[in-house]
Amino acid sequence: MWEYTDKVKEHFLNPRNAGEVENANAVAEVGSIACGDALKLTLKIDEAGRIADAGFQTFGCASAIASSSALTEMLKGKTVAEAEKITNQDIADFLGGLPKEKMHCSVLGQQALEQAIANYKGLPQEEKKGEIVCECFGVTDEEIERTVTENNLSTVEEVTNYIKAGGGCENCHGAIQELIDRVRMEVKPISRPKLSNIQKIKMIEETLEREIRPSLKLDGGDLELIDVIGNRVLVATRGTCAVCKASEQTLKNFVEARLRELVWPELVVEEVVQ
Amino acid sequence: MKTIYLDNNATTQVAEEVIESMLPYFHDAYGNPSSAHSFGGQIAGKVNGAREQVAALLNAMPEEIIFTSCGTESDNTAIMSALANGKGKNHVVTSRAEHPAVRSLCAHLSGQGYRITEIPVDREGLLDMEYYEKSLTPDTAIVSLMWANNETGVLFPVEKAAEMARERGIPFHTDAVQAVGKIPIAMNKNVIDMLSVSGHKLHAPKGIGVLYVRKGTQFSPYLIGGHQETGRRGGTENTPYIIGLGTACELAERNMKEENTRVKNLRDKLENEICSRIPSSRINGDVLKRIPNTSNISFEFVEGESILLMMDEFGICASSGSACTSGSLQPSHVLRAMGVPFTMAHGSVRFSLSIYNHEEEIDFVIEKMPAIIERLRSFSPFWKTAESV
Q1: B361: phi > 0 → left, psi -120 to 50 → alpha, else beta; which?
Q2: Which pLDDT band, with edges at 50, 70 and 90, does B327 fall under?
């Protein structure tokens, strides 16, 4: 049996706002009986753009019913702009959390909300964007990418828990993993933390040793790190480099470029004559 | 709150008599049957007494009974033994409705290069015998078909199927976990080679099972170890549980008639009343070719887990073939194999009775079910549309 929070159980046994709102001006139907859960959301939005009433009809398990009940409670009294900010995680949080296998119940609520607001605004019902990846549950690549990004998912199993994709014949598992990999490459933070001087020196020394000296040594040259002052990296040339006319070029085009790439991008390499 | 337990295909209450018979073997008579001293050695006689009790229920010979740890071990042992003795044959015949103990093993074997044929079932859950006959080929190493289905209770004609396999020299195994104790089993009158039994489905504890292996059947052990079970299953005998299973088998034999009269009548009353009181409900599986304790009912436009949790509020225990209860996203493979439509499959509830159920309990369930289904339908988006059609 699933471990539901008391709040999930309470909302399941005593659902709020079950039924259809009369004269609703925002209506959405998501899910299907084949998929095992479906939700019809009806909202009455007043002239000031505030949600005056909300109702749900749900076919599904206890957590689907509780999520629908929670969603309607969260919506009542909110403006459309406020409602638009509600995420599936907010719905799950409202209920004190959902079992991970049941997160798709909260996603169903969010999908219904989005569709209802689009319906209220008179936007045409959006065609499913993207290519179907999961044939069993009719989930597209764009839906998977969005869910992975918004919920920071990393495994196929998590994707299945959130939007069911991959929960049927499992033939699409490879394709889902590729989507996850792609999304995670894109969102990987490229911001670098600020480095202390000691860290800078250490990283430069390591990079010199690993990436730069071996090439220089092939020509009998070498390089020594003298000091680091802010963005200025002070080096002295040794061996053949010290007498080579092209050493200035080498420092700019090779040493500086490599260090900028691997240590921090704003550094400037300067040669000191000792 | 009183518990009304109608989930006996999941597991059963251990009979008082069974517990009673087991107790001495934990504390007083705890010896090892393999020991040379009489304190331990005398237990071997008791274990063989239990073997006789099991054999009696199956109408088999005691030496054909191997004690195992569970139904799954028995199923795995039978199939792996047949493959080990199959002289390179790489084809396994099974059905689409098998328990995971066989189904998952077959999926695993498929990954190892074995060819698996899953015989389809019809809308009533009955085996396609024509398909079965055509599936038997010279490279078939083993047939494994369940006797009674755990979800619907539907019986496969395994005795007939075993004869067809025998004519072609193919070993035949049946997972009889749900059948033993509920219908008479006569191994002396059929040609089934191997048969699995699980203790906890017939009022013995969990953790004890049996594999029947017909005398003369080539056999390779699955657990390799000591000489226990005449070298067919290593591991020190689980003496208290073996004794308990022996008692349970004796009780089952005694209760067989009651199971097929009083329990069957309670089951029939339950499903007839529920189906007549609740619109858009129907029984899954052939109503005649079934074990007497099981009823699988679908309620259209509502979801099984919701039904179970509402029943739970009244202390009523049952199970469901819905996707959500299983933890997967698709409803039961058995109902899907039968072609039960999704609107019905998600809302299926399995009631499984035992001799410990009483009429008052059944009446209570009959009284509560209509309101539960009605309430869930009241907020199902599909119900009103369906009603107006």
Answers
A1: alpha
A2: low
